[in-house]
Amino acid sequence: MPPRIDRAALTAVAFDSLPDWALDPHAQSIAALRRSCERLLAMPPERPMGPAALNVAVSDMVQPCTAIVAVPDADAAAARHYFERWFRPFLVSNNGDPEGLFTGYFEIELRGSLVRNEKYDVPVYRRPDDLVTVNLGQFDAALAGRAVVGRVENGRLQPYFPRGAIQQGALDGKGLELVWLDDPLDAFMLHVQGSGRVVLTDGRATRIGYAAHNGHPYKSIGRELIERGELSPDQASWHDIRDWMEANPGKAAELLSVNRRFIFFEENGGEGPIGAQNVTLTAGRSLAVDPRFIPLGLPLWLDISWPGDDDRPLRRLVVAQDTGAAIKGPVRGDFYWGTGDTALSFAGRMKQRGRYYLLLPLAAAERQTAS
C-alpha cells in the first residue's frame, strides 16, 4: 500500500467553540507573539508565510503586530480581546482527520568545559567550514523549498559524514570543538532537543543552540529499541532509553549511530533557546510545527491532555515558533516545556493525541473562507 499523502484542510470555527477558550490566561501568550511580531515586521510585507496554498503573507500580520504593542502584559481580558479582534480560528485536519500526535521537548542543562580533560571528553562541534547546503530551487523551480547538505570532495558534492563516522573521529583535529561535555548520553539528548544550557567548570553558564545539521535523516533511537524488542512501546521514554544504555554500555555507541543525523551548534546567549523563527522560545507557549503546513509566527489553540494524565486537559494558546526533524504532518506539534529536570519530566513522557486550531489574521481568514 502506498504511503498516505498528507493533505491539510482548514475549517472555520467560532472562538466560543474552542474547548476552554475562556479559561486560558491569554496574556501569557502575548510575550511569545510579540517576539514573533518583531521578527515579522522586519521582513518584506510581500513575503509568504507558510505554504502557498494557505495564501498568508507577512502583510497580513502588520496590523495585528502593530496593535499588540498596546496590549498590557498582565491583562488577561485585554489579551483575549486582542486575539478575538485580530484573528479567526480554523480547525486543522489531515485528510479529514483532526487528530494528531503531540510530543514535548525542553532545554537540557549540561556540565561542560572549554578545554578537554579526563572528565570532559565529549565534544560539541561548531558548524564545519566544509559543510555545504545547496538550495535546489535555485537550479529547478520544481524543487523550490528543498535542499541537500554535503561536502565537496574532488570537485563532487558528497554526503556529509554520518553520526557514526563523526563518533569515530571524522572531525578530529579540525578545531571545531565548541565545548566539551562529561556525558555522551546528555550530548545525544542535546542533539535531539537542539539547544542546551551549559554550566562551565568556572561556574559561568552559556547557552548553545542549533547551527546546522549534516543532511542525514533523523531516526528515533527509542523506536529502534522497540523494533529490536529491547523496549515495549509504553517503556520508551527518555528515562527508559537512558536506563537501557547505561545497562548496555557496549551497545550504546552503535545504538546512537542508528540516528545518522548530527547537529552542529553555536553560542546564542540570551534568556532562552532560539527557535526556527529565530526568536527566543517561551516555556509553555511555544510550539514546534511542520512549516510545510503551519506558518511560523502564528498562534494556535492547543487541545490535548497532560503527559501521563489523559483526564487532565492541556488547552492553551501557543505560538508556532520552531520546527523539528521528527515534526512532520499537518496535525503534529512539539510542545516546549522550558529548561531543566522538571521540563524533562513532562517532555520525556509526552506522547498525546489531540488537535489544534490555527488562528489566521483577519485578512488571511477572509480569503480562506471565501475560497
What features would you describe in this structure?
With 371 residues, this protein is α+β, with helices and mostly antiparallel strands. It is built from ten helices and 18 strands. The strands form three sheets. The protein has a six-stranded mixed beta barrel with strand order 5-17-14-16-15-18, surrounded by four helices. α1 crosses α3. The longest helix has 15 residues. It is globular and about 60 Å long. The two termini are 33 Å apart. The model has no long low-confidence stretch (mean pLDDT 93).
Q: How far apart are the termini?
A: 33 Å
| Radius of gyration, in angstroms, nearest whole number | 21 Å
Strand content: 25-35%
Number of strands: 18
Largest sheet: 6 strands, mixed, barrel
Largest beta sheet: strand ordering: 5-17-14-16-15-18
Rough shape?
Answer: globular
Low-confidence stretches: none
Number of helices: 10
Order of helices and strands: EHEEHHEEEEEEHEHEEHHHEEEEEHEH
